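Q: Predict the bound structure with flavin-adenine dinucleotide.
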Amino acid sequence: MQGTVSHRTLFEPRSVPDALKMLRDDGPLTPLAGCTDLYVALNFGTLQETRFLDLWRLDALRRIEWRGGALAIGALATYTDLIRSPLVRKALPMLAAAAREVGGVQIQNRGTIGGNVANASPAGDTLPVLAAADASVVLQSAGGTRRVPFNAFYTGYRQTVRRRDELIVGFEIPPVDGRQWFRKVGTRAAQAISKVVVAGVIGDEVRIALGSVAPTVMRAARTEAALARGAPVADAQRVLMDEIAPIDDVRSTAAYRRRVAANLLARMLADRS
Ligand SMILES: Cc1cc2nc3c(=O)[nH]c(=O)nc-3n(C[C@H](O)[C@H](O)[C@H](O)COP(=O)(O)OP(=O)(O)OC[C@H]3O[C@@H](n4cnc5c(N)ncnc54)[C@H](O)[C@@H]3O)c2cc1C
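A: Predicted complex:
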């Protein structure tokens, strides 16, 4: 490991209010959840931050329940929690499907949905699901709580509207009408970062969200509008290929990502029957 831990400070709150006070009074602090992203940076020696707030013991942030007519998922819910949750499997099966495809079992046991969202990688596998489900991000600071529509949470590549004194405490997902669909395309079945990841809802309207094809996760609004107007699949595919903005990088090429995204759209629509 190239990063050292000796000059780093760890705050260990016992409750969410404690954690929020520490963020306000002792900040700036970097939250730690499952550490599966942060340890990679520590290992590479690229972790700049030195003061951390350990959330792992805050069980209040691990709950998954119906609250106020929405599925409420705590930020610390791990992929294993999501896979095992009867509520998630029934109300949001595309999230259980995404969780099953993350990393391997070790990552699923430690990695959290809050960490995936806060880490803000455009390749994060749960992000298209939350985008297609019209989720809200629940942010809390010592001063109060605010809810941000998931589709307004990211402002640019790895940029979010979260303030440094706020934690993501969870997500609220309204009931989703229609069939849910999730596909991840990577180099292999496990431990692969997505080349393209798609989540969709096919009901009276079609919703489609994609990851790894733009600086942030994106809803394909123009493609959705074309489908709502009754465009044939081939036309919708052309709109989608024009709408996304993939890049060439170590994992894939822009051309491959465009082609795969279009193929996945066709498959998602064909699966409708
Ligand atoms: C081997 C390996 C395989 C992986 N495979 C995949 C994969 O297939 N798909 C995928 O999407 N990801 C994958 N990842 C990335 C990672 O596991 C996920 O992004 C995971 O969900 C991160 O969650 P965490 O709890 O470990 O976050 P941490 O590493 O603890 O934190 C990540 C970031 O989020 C911030 N943060 C965490 N929780 C909060 C909160 N509640 N409020 C505010 N900020 C917060 C932290 O400060 C940090 O910046 C992989 C990682 C590894 C090492």
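A: The pocket of flavin-adenine dinucleotide is lined by residues 30-38, 40, 55, 75, 102-103, 107, 110-112, 114-116, 118-119, 124-125, 167-168, 191 (CB under 6 Å).
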